[in-house]
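Look over this today:
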Amino acid sequence: MAPPKTPKSARFAKGLPDRETLLKFIRESGETDKAAIARAFGLKGEDRRALRHMLNQLQDDGTLGKRGRRGLAEAGALPEVGVADVVERDTDGDLLVRLVRGEDAPLVPLAPGADVKGSAPGLGDRVLVRFVPLENGEFEARLIKRLGQSAHRILGVVRKSRREIRVEPVDRRSKDTLVLPEGEDVRDGDLVVAQVEPHGPRYGPKRGKLLETVGREDDPRAYSLIAIHAHGVPTGFSEGAEAEAEAAEAPTLAGREDLRDVPLITIDPLDARDHDDAVYAHPDDDPKNPGGWVCWVAIADVAAYVRPGSELDRIARDKGNSAYFPDRVEPMLPERLSNGLCSLREGENRACLAVRMVFGADGRKRNHRFVRGLMRSAAKLAYEQAQAAIDGAPDDKTGPLLEPVLKPLWAAYACLKKGRDARSPLAIESLERKIAISREGEIAAITPRATLDANRLIEEFMIQANVCAAETLEEKRTPLIYRIHDQPSPEKLQALGDFLGSIGMPWTKGEAPRTERFNRLLDETRDGPHADIVNEVVLRTQMQAVYSSENIGHYGLNLTKYAHFTSPIRRYADLIVHRALVTALKLGSDGLSEFDIAKMKDTAELISFAERRAMAAERDATDRYVAAFLADRVGAEFDGKITGVTRFGLFVRLAETGADGLVPVSTLGGEYFVHDDRTHALVGERTGARWPLGMSVQVRLREATPITGGLVFEMLSDPAPPDDSMPRPRLGVRGRGGGPPRPRPGRPPGIRTGRKKKMGGKRR
């Protein structure tokens, strides 16, 4: 994202503003942050601290509210794009919407006749909209997409008693329990979707209407189903889409370059269910490029099968991406394509869009060209299989490929790595856990997922192909969807500096946040006692990568031009980039449509939302499976580390499984604990004893609730002694220790396990 902008209409005097001037600036900015305000008024030193105090007061009294990634907005202010509920109709019958996370937000009319495919929204629906200012100073909401889950629907578990039938929500953040009418044909323990009745009683539980029964809470395979329904992940395909997929035909050479003699191979996770990328490399025989390499990346030509305006295209855009769960995949495309004609199967002819890249001996790309081709994969390999061959243990399949294919690939990767090292992308290590599911749907084991050179090779080849796509489309001035990643905000950098100071690590706050600076910090702490937590805090300092029709570069990869091109089977963004390349390079008549071009910005926002939705659903499903795995170990003791500190308790990650759970503050001792957000610690108000981020601890598992994915721990370790070098935190943000914890029955709080990478690739 671009940095918050100063309102053009405002002309403000330098110096600390008064309350009204500050509010006027924020109002005209729409959304802003502390750093942008300080720059606009030229504030430094004590004035910046005074500004922070003013902003805190304005937030405390409800005048200001938090808004998105930019930080601050006037209470009731509207973002450019937001998720809203359709809550009522006006006297003319027009629909009115209100922001989901904004009780103070105004009602805004939904513009009629929006040019969006799919069914029209109605009362109770949740929608993604753009808020557009009108000439009269008011706003209207323009529909981007009708979301899959209704705003007033609850996914829950039926609890039957003699008196009533209740639905308890599976979302541990929800407080609504619904009462169903007597006589409903449900059993205790059924998983159901119910809708809030709009005209229920003013007091007591809300009344609900049963919509559907989706499963049983005691079914091990229900955990993914719960996550899918809870987050509104679109499922299945229409008859029209299935019919289009079934009608697809095998590719021919017509309009394609014959690449079947190029020994391209696929290298994927062992459990990958689709194969959309293949690679090959050989030394460059051009005497002008001594020591150089030619690298091929061939990608499934999904654009040849999913045409603009088709039913397949409508559903793929609606889904945005495939969602991957421990026991299932909710694919973006029907199996006939995702696991059939668009999957680069070994020994079968497949349509592809390939890029031939030439690199110098220094690892820098010299040139590239795209071709629309027909390929035949020479082999399907797993990461571990390819790595074992390179490490001296080839099998019957990799043995014949070792000299002609695998060794050249690794040599080419060694060359590309020189360029990568010079570029210095962020080298944050992310926790990966592999969840093994038995045939009965239960977790058999949770183990670390190793990252091998084979993984890194494929990742670097894919990154370079993505760069080529963005460069080509910019050169041809063709609209595209970029993958962008903003640099960390000043507030996050300030918080990072405060934390590093608390563990004795130097961090010059005025220095630019270059990626190599973060990497140097990670290298300096890698073998020390704070390695894991520094890695975690640096990760939290980063912004989230998103899709955009406007380019600001990719900070984490340290690239100025980057677009997703390599996974069109499972990401709609890549399909749009493929169509753009077809249009720009005149490779066929199935390129970008007028709708694609006109809705490029909306599509970028839509698939960014879909990606966040899928990630949240994947995490929630994993949480539930992990809680089920640990449910029969309640009372067991575990080693772990404090990975989160809040006023209501400590989040601890277990070393054995990577599972996260909460130690409630009420179990930590007989004094008040103050949350010191500067040093990320809970500090005893009387004794000064500390529970800091990153501390190694031992805990006992008290509760594991699979239906919500919640884990509650009891702390067994002693706190760290007082640190006299640290100033005592300000009072007021504190939690009471000393009593037994009182979590809601069956719904203990908790946080996510380390996110599992998707089968088949990474999100970058």
